[in-house]
């Protein structure tokens, strides 16, 4: 039963003053606005809320952009990171040239494996680890204070 029609008096909209037949949820609540007035209020609220959310999202994006701009600028000038980049580039070059081939994970045998360097000064001494074992290896190194 969507509408209540017991022959009683209709409600009067508190916004526009027009008499209307209340719906069941309006009888149970204190909302005394007709549907057009209620929709207009919802649209106005959603519009204002949407603008606020867009502004907040834009500000968050700018904060992240500024943070990462500094982060990557620092990484580009960091000599340790330059050594890591050089080692990764060396492995990629060797794979493309066919002098080095990808191997399965040394732990579980998964086909898709990453090249893990224990020592970046020796770029071709690598372990082949799947992503999960690679992350586990780095977690263990961090726990020991080696990474």
Task: List the topology elements.
Blueprint: E1 11-12, E2 19-20, H1 24-28, H2 35-77, H3 79-97, E3 114-117, E4 126-129, H4 131-144
Spans of at least 5 consecutive residues whose pLDDT stays below 50 are: none
Total beta strand runs: 4
List the helices and strands in order.
Answer: EEHHHEEH
Q: Main β-sheet, in a few words? A: 2 strands, antiparallel
Calculate the terminal CA-CA distance, rounded to whole Å.
Answer: 67 Å
Q: What's the helix count?
A: 4
Oligomer: single chain
Residues in helices, as a percent range: 55-70%
Question: How many discrete domains?
Answer: 2
Overall description:
- This protein has 147 residues and is mainly alpha-helical.
- It has helices at 24-28, 35-77, 79-97, 131-144, and strands spanning 11-12, 19-20, 114-117, 126-129.
- It folds into two domains: 11-70; 79-144, no CATH class.
- It is 55% helix and 8% strand.
- The strands form two sheets. A two-stranded antiparallel sheet has the order 1-2. Strands 3-4 form a two-stranded antiparallel sheet.
- A hairpin with an 8-residue loop joins strand 3 and strand 4.
- The radius of gyration is 32 Å and the shape is elongated.
- 4% of the residues are buried.
- The mean pLDDT is 86.
Quick gist of this model?
The chain has helices at residues 24-28, 35-77, 79-97, 131-144, and strands at 11-12, 19-20, 114-117, 126-129.
Index terms:
single chain; 147 residues; mainly alpha; 2 domains; two-stranded antiparallel ribbon; 4 helices
